Amino acid sequence: MNTSTLDMDHDHVELLIGTVQTAADANAKAVRNTVLSPRFYTTDFAAMDRLDVEPVRTEWDVMMKEYEGDNNHDHFQRDAEFAEEVKKLMPQLSPEMRQEFLDFLISSLTSEFSGCILYNEIRKHVSNPDIKQLMTYMARDESRHAGFINQSLKDFDLGIDLGELKRQKNYTFFKPKFIFYATYLSEKIGYARYITIFRQLERHPDKRFHPIFRWFERWCNDEFRHGESFALIMRAHPHLLRGGNLLWIRFFILAVYATMYVRDHTRPLLHEAMGFESTDYDYEVFRITSDICRQVFPIEVDIDHPTFRACMTRLVELSIANAKAKERGGVMGLIGRASTAVQALFTFGRLYLLPVKKQDLPADIRMQPTW
């Protein structure tokens, strides 16, 4: 299934992602809470404080040494070529492509800053030295990532006020185990997304339409290590990976995959410019993420099941229909939005009821990024 089959023309894209023309638009987009936009989270800090990593102490101490070594401490600096590439390449973007790229940057920044806020808040509210140390390192990394993206937004005179974003964005409370599942998946799928883009543009440098993509290889290794941190926490607390918690794991895998799939299909020109087709790109990212998640999750969704693929396509169609109903407004618009919401819930239910693959967890807890 490709984007043309989904009838994702520019009018549909504009309905789904909106238009950013000013800094106020960019800030409003970052603050806005939708089903597809990255969220800010808070959690039970007392429960985080009680975590015990002694069962994985050997692997934990090795990882802390890696964080302390900070091999990316000098990475997130714009070199002399960056500004020249921006001046050369940005005028070549069509207005439609510009909007998709801005949506990508704003969404990515919000996601990275979300991690920074969460990790920093946990750091401030716990006394557990292991968790405090970990959260300090991860907040440091995510702050760099968000700041680096913001510099690229400022090239468009659209920088995000991060202080205001922190104050205005709504926060969602998640139990610690939900933080572990969701954040592990977010970090690992972030790695898979970035490395897939980096490898593609490494093979086809003529398709690198912005210099920020040159930073993705070392950048995504930060994402990978963050995921490893949550993998160690979950492996240290094996009750999180069995029993009724398997139902939650299935839910979060599907929620993360579905959100990414729908959001990515609002950016067909972005992927086309890099030599991808949105559907093919997403399934490659799903494959990498599924491979990685075998280190910690004893179940895996079947991304090749015909019903899985049909439901993913259906969710994109319903997202378009919902946006049209919202634009229509009035009573009929409300009815249309309610109808698409019910259908989306039903479609997600079909995904959730699909059989899952089961596997034994590997003896070696840590992984290395090899994709």
Q: What can you see in these coordinates?
A:
- The chain has one domain: Ribonucleotide Reductase, subunit A.
- 66% of the residues lie in helices and 3% in strands.
- The protein is globular.
* Biggest β-sheet description: 2 strands, parallel
Radius of gyration: 20 Å
With strands numbered from the N-terminus, the spatial order across the biggest sheet is 1-2
Query: Mean pLDDT, as a whole number?
Result: 92
> What helical percentage do the residues reach?
55-70%
CATH class: Mainly Alpha
Number of domains in the coordinates?
1
* CATH fold node name: Ribonucleotide Reductase, subunit A
Query: Which stretches are low in confidence, meaning pLDDT under 50 for 5 or more residues running?
Result: 1-5
Number of strands: 4
Helical segment count: 15
Oligomeric assembly:
single chain
Protein traits:
371 residues; mainly alpha; two-stranded parallel ribbon; 15 helices; globular; disordered N terminus
Task: Produce the secondary structure layout.
Elements: H1 10-17, H2 23-31, E1 40-42, H3 45-49, H4 57-69, H5 80-89, H6 95-125, H7 129-154, H8 162-168, E2 171-173, H9 176-203, H10 216-236, H11 245-264, H12 268-273, H13 278-293, E3 299-301, H14 306-328, H15 330-352, E4 356-358
Parallel strand pairs: 1-2
Antiparallel strand pairs: 3-4
Précis, in short:
Helix content is 66%, strand content 3%. It is built from 15 helices and four strands. α11 (245-264) packs antiparallel against α13 (278-293).
